[in-house]
Write a structure and sequence with these properties.
This protein is about 5% helix and about 30% strand. The strands form 2 sheets. The chain has a 17-stranded parallel sheet that branches. The chain has a 10-stranded parallel sheet with strand order 2-4-7-10-13-16-19-22-25-27, with no helix packed on it. The relative contact order is 0.07.
């Protein structure tokens, strides 16, 4: 019976192990109690040594900026060209015995003695030419012809140097044909025979006037040898215009007269002379007389349709000298109607 129970017990233990029954641990063996140790003597911590306060360092100084370099001047892209040498003047003087042309390439021309142009000889002057006369005396003594046609872009300049007459003529001779010219700084432009065409030009500072002319005119023609036409010009600070003993038409039209110092005058001199025509002009800043007649054989003047800067006829009458002012004259200047604005074909100041 005891032999049967042992195998059964063994089988039961195996089945319990297989089914996860807790294993029975052996009770722990008893360890001897530790011997109590004497408490360690307390370790005295030394007081902290006082450390010197760290030195406060100054903030770093910013380095001084290096001085900016002085910029060197930049060379110009194109060096200034040297001034051209003054053009040498072409000196002229004396008698011109054959037809001659003065060119712009040889300009300026300096007259060292009066240029004399005989009858039948023509002096042609090209656009852009400058003619000077530093010394006193006439620039030209004209019995032939001067033809000087400039352009609007290239005028022909005649500078009298303050002591010269531009053109002097001889009775019955001389013809001047001028367009786009500048006549300045002299006694007068024309003195005083022959005949003249003057258009699109400027007459400036001929303030002394002809020494022979009535009232110091810048242009005087005595007994002209042909028709006279003075048109589309500017007369500035200069003398006026005188016609004497004219048997030909004498026309003064479409001109600006600014601060002129003497009048436009028909001085008479011959019977049955044509009426002097003074029309479509502008009279600006005129002091004193601008239109006049002289008491020689009852000269006449048609001065209608001019611009006076006023419509006051009393003011206009003060600028006219005729039979209302001198009973010897015996004729009157007709000036009505007047223009209320400058004629569109007349130059402006």
């Amino acid at each position: 019976m005891k032999r049967v129970l042992l195998p059964i017990l063994v089988i039961g233990v195996l089945l319990l192990s297989a089914c996860g029954a807790p294993s029975v641990e052996a009770p722990p063996s008893e360890q001897p109690a530790p011997t109590p140790e004497e408490p360690a003597a307390p370790v005295e911590t030394p007081p902290p040594t006082e450390q010197p306060a760290p030195a406060i360092e100054a903030p770093p100084t910013a380095p001084e900026p290096a001085p900016a370099p002085t910029p060197e001047p930049m060379p110009s892209e194109k060096p200034e060209p040297p001034l051209p040498p003054a053009e040498a003047a072409t000196e002229v003087g004396g008698i011109i015995s054959s037809n001659t042309t003065w060119t712009a390439e040889k300009s300026p021309y300096e007259i060292t003695e009066t240029i004399q142009i005989p009858e039948g000889v023509t002096l042609t002057i090209e656009p852009g030419v400058i003619v000077n006369k530093p010394a006193s005396g006439d620039m030209f003594l004209l019995m032939g012809t001067i033809r000087a046609h400039g352009t609007a872009q290239e005028s022909i300049v005649f500078d009298g140097g303050g002591n010269s007459t531009i053109v002097g003529t001889h009775p019955g001779h001389g013809y001047g044909d001028f367009e786009f010219g500048v006549f300045k700084n002299g006694y007068s432009l024309w003195d005083r025979w022959g005949h003249l065409t003057l258009r699109y030009s400027q007459i400036i500072n001929l303030t002394t006037g002809s020494q022979k002319a009535v009232g110091g005119a810048s242009i005087q023609l005595d007994n002209p040898s042909g028709e006279v036409n003075i048109e589309y010009n500017r007369f500035i600070n200069t003398g006026g215009i005188v016609s004497y003993s004219s048997r030909y038409e004498f026309n003064v039209r479409y001109n600006l007269f600014l601060r002129v110092i003497s009048s436009i005058c028909n001085a008479g001199g011959v019977t049955q002379q044509p009426e002097m025509v003074v029309k479509f002009n502008s009279f600006i800043n005129i002091e004193g007389t601008i239109l006049s007649l002289e008491p020689v054989l009852s000269p006449t003047m048609d001065a209608t349709e001019n611009y006076w800067g006023t419509t006051d006829t009393d003011a206009i009458d003060l600028k006219i000298h005729d039979g209302k002012d001198d009973v010897r004259i015996g004729s009157y200047i007709t000036y009505m109607p007047i223009l209320t604005s400058p004629h569109p074909s007349t130059p402006t100041p």
